[in-house]
Design brief:
With 409 residues, this protein is of the alpha+beta class. The protein folds into two domains: 191 residues, no CATH class; 187 residues, no CATH class. It is built from 14 helices and 15 strands. The strands form two sheets. Strands 7, 8, 9, 10, 11, 12, 13, 14 and 15 form a nine-stranded antiparallel sheet that branches. It has a six-stranded mixed sheet with strand order 1-2-3-4-6-5, sandwiched between helices. A hairpin with a 2-residue loop joins strand 8 and strand 9. Helix 1 runs parallel beside helix 9 and helix 3 packs across helix 4.
């Protein structure tokens, strides 16, 4: 539950978004809509587009080719605008920024650079990346973060100029730009309300807020955005230690994280081990994950908070499969080597005393399955009107990450 005034603001913002015509047009293609709109603007009004992007791109020669290209070598948008370096835009609206994905574009950027010289990669995102500043070097290229509010602000002068044009086509384009900027601001207002998180409030949104987001058809994406904001509190607490743990790029963490995908994770080194934090969305619910890789290509110890459950999980590099026999071997292996990982005493002590309500632990001597590689047990931490708060999640998340990082194999 968030504050009553914030709930009212969020519900009002969702109502405005729900009736916005461009928002409704965007729902079929989501991120593609925004990339296509910017491509249309650049093709029709390249000089105006250059003035929009001049705040973030150095002067240069964009090289030969069309003004706008979509999905070239999996790049969302490539722009060649007058007197600016070649621009590459990775667009994130409903999915979260992913450093692994940006690193993976290095080869495509090198090919473009052979034609244009300098390349200016831009991450255009509704949700800020987990960087220390406005730019980050990934795959040898400096990616610059541009927020959607900043984009809307820079579009307004172009819209105003076109609205004053003498011909109807330009005036119509100006009206479209004006309405698009207004749509983006409404979207950002909802995002701002959702991501306004304080340590004392519950991690998950209340029923009324969820209903408003679902009515505006933005619940999935906004839930991930809020979860990323909550996870930033965990990361901040970890990095407040002295000495601060080293933040790792996806490429630096790749060897330790195999055979699991490192896409979407934020990595840091805890002691001699690699730890990761992730926002996920499964079974129509957001999930927060923390994990530690025990050895290169080996097992991992996880915690996860989803729905009403605080889960402790082991993911194994061996005994992977979905059949009953392989699952039984996996569960036996987990019980033998990691039985003590499933200790919910810190959860019970933190939550049970204040609430005066027992915290049930599910699983007993057995495990719940998560095929093809994991076994878990869980404590039901949300019950009887009590919900896990951000500060409680931070305390538990940091505790279990440090416990996993110091695990004796």
């Amino acid at each position: 539950m968030i504050g009553e005034m914030t709930i009212e603001s969020l519900v009002a913002a969702c109502k405005e978004l729900r009736v916005d015509p461009l928002h409704n047009l965007s729902l079929g293609s989501k991120e593609l809509f925004h990339s296509n709109f910017l491509a249309w603007f650049a093709q029709g009004y390249p000089q105006d587009a250059a003035e929009v992007f001049a705040d973030w791109v150095e002067p240069g020669d964009p090289g030969p080719g069309p003004t706008a290209e979509r999905e070239r070598a999996h790049l969302d948008l490539v722009l060649r605008l007058p007197h600016l370096r070649l621009i590459v835009v990775e667009n994130k609206v409903w999915s979260l920024p992913d450093d692994t994905q940006l690193e993976g574009y290095a080869a495509a950027l090198r090919k473009l650079a052979q034609l244009a010289g300098d390349v200016a990669p831009i991450l255009l995102s509704l949700s800020p990346p987990a960087w220390d500043g406005p730019a980050s070097t990934l795959g040898g290229y400096s990616w610059v973060y541009v927020s959607y509010p900043d984009l809307a602000r820079r579009l307004k002068p172009a819209a105003d100029r076109l609205l004053r044009a003498s011909n109807s086509e330009d005036r119509f384009a100006g009206e479209l730009l004006h309405r698009y900027a207004a749509f983006v601001e409404r979207l950002c207002r909802v995002a701002g309300e959702v991501s306004r998180v304080s340590p004392s409030e519950p991690v998950w949104l209340d029923d009324r807020s969820r209903a408003a987001l679902k009515d505006a058809r933005v619940y999935d994406g906004m839930s991930k955005l809020r979860a990323r904001q909550v996870l930033s509190f965990v990361l901040e607490q970890l990095r407040s230690a002295s000495p601060a743990p080293q933040v790792l790029t996806p490429n630096e963490a790749k060897a330790a994280w195999l055979p699991w995908s490192n896409a979407g994770w934020q990595f840091l080194r805890l002691g001699r081990r690699v730890a990761g934090l992730e926002v996920n969305f499964t079974n129509s619910m957001p999930a927060l994950d923390g994990a530690v890789a025990l050895k290169s290509g080996g097992d991992k110890l996880f915690w996860q908070y989803q729905g009403q459950q605080w889960r402790l999980t082991v993911a194994t590099a061996s005994h992977r499969g979905r059949g009953e026999a392989i699952r039984a071997r996996r569960h036996a292996y987990v019980a033998k080597h990691y039985g003590s990982w499933f200790d919910f005493t810190p959860v019970i002590k933190l939550l049970g005393a204040d609430r005066g309500t027992p915290i049930p632990v599910k699983g007993g001597g057995q495990f719940y399955r998560f095929d093809p590689d994991s076994a878990y047990r869980y404590a039901k931490v949300d019950q009887d009107g009590h919900w896990l708060t951000v500060s409680e999640l931070v305390e538990l998340g940091v505790y279990y990450l440090h416990r996993a990082a110091s695990w004796q194999e």
